[in-house]
Amino acid sequence: MSTAINTVTGTITPDELGRTLMHEHVYVEYGGAFNDTRDLGPRRNDIMAICADSVDQIKAYDVRTVVDPTPTDLGRRAPLMADLAAKTGLNIICCTGLYSVGTYLQVREQVGGPEAVADIFIQELTEGIGQTGVKAGIIKVVTGAPAISDAERELLQVSAKASVASGAPIITHTEGILGQEQQDILHAAGVPLHNIIVGHSCISTNFNYHMHMIRAGSYLGFDRFGMEGGMPDEVRVHSLIKLLEAGCAERMMVSHDSVWYWVGGPSLGSGGYQNWKPTNFFERIIPMLQYGGVTDEQIETMLVDNPRRFFTGEEPEAIS
Ligand SMILES: [Zn+2]
After folding, report:
1. How many Cα atoms within 13 Å fall on the side-chain side of residue 300?
2. In the prediction, which pLDDT does 269 show?
3. What is the CA(278)–ligand 1 centre distance, in A?
4. Domains of the chain (ranges plus CATH)?
5. What span, in angstroms and rounded, lies between the C-alpha atoms of 254 and 116?
6. What's the CA-to-centroid distance between 71 and ligand 1, angstroms?
7. At 11, is the secondary structure helix, strand, or coil?
């Protein structure tokens, strides 16, 4: 259990988290491992300005902290995040871990096995990412569909080892399925279930799937508000209200999975991505929730209390 939380500019206490968006990306670029200090060239100033604009917008809604679960092979740039945090005063919590099993297998071969990969994760959480001096504060894990592959399972176990050794919690990527299997594998490797957020759970509309993971003890990420390509926000809101009515406010984490600067990807709020921006929860979703009977207190529980409890490592009350 830790009371000092690593942000990209140093440690903060759980009380300093404030309103927290649990899953947003500052910068995304697909590619191999060890990208943090790769030069961004003359684009860097533009990238900073675009990302600072997103920060200004969420600060207007009193967001104090953003968790950025971009592993190195999704383009993590620790120095860029540190500069952005220093410039704007936003707390940014970055991650260790790997996004693709392809990268994992390459890195595993390069460094000499799963144990050595776990050691890299632990080093990034406790000593820093390469020579950047930036420490990660959370571990990202990923599974695809339709089943968890052997390599994905091994990477989950490696990540669990780093979590147990460092005390850092875990945030997952799912395709809206297999969250229970993630819980089983991570828990069997020693991770307490309340140290896990099963991400992208809002892709599923299956109430029983959601309740199973909550009863087991984890948090659910309803973290794609505004990503309306596959599902309108109204459907996510409906699923969320159902869980809140079932007494699950203390297990829900909300966010957008927005990407503030995506090399080769869409810009925020452009074209078909009109509502995909880090203010969408405040501008459109809160009014919908309120119309559905959700209270201000429940909204603050999701934005403030849950992130604080999660990073403190405190076990939430059981939900039956
Ligand atoms: Zn994401």
Report:
1. 5
2. 84
3. 12
4. 5-312 (3.20.20.140)
5. 34
6. 10
7. strand
Give residue 64's pLDDT band: very low, low, confident or very high (50, 70, 90): very high
**223 Cα: distance to centroid of ligand 1 (angstroms):** 8
Task: Please tell me the predicted confidence (pLDDT) of residue 2.
Answer: 52
Distance 225 CA to ligand 1 centre (A): 12
Tens digits of per-residue pLDDT, 104-154? Answer: 999 999 999 999 999 999 999 999 999 999 999 999 999 999 999 999 999
**Phi/psi of residue 271, each to 5°?**
50, -125
* Distance (Å) from CA 93 to ligand 1 centroid: 14
What are the tokens at 317? 């009350």
Q: How far is the CA of 294 from the centre of ligand 1 (A)?
A: 26
Q: How far is the CA of 80 from the centre of ligand 1 (A)?
A: 18
For ligand 1, the distance from its centroid to the CA atom of residue 110, given in whole angstroms, is 26
Arithmetic mean of pLDDT, 6-10: 98
The yes-or-no verdict on residue 1 having pLDDT over 50 is no
Report pLDDT for 18.
98
Q: Is the pTM of this model over 0.90?
A: yes
CA of 254 to the centre of ligand 1 (A): 12
Distance between Cα 214 and ligand 1 center (Å) = 21
Q: Give the Å distance between the CA of 28 and the centre of ligand 1.
A: 9
Confidence band, pLDDT 50/70/90 cuts, at residue 229: confident
Contact call for residues 155 and 99 (beta carbons, < 8 A): no
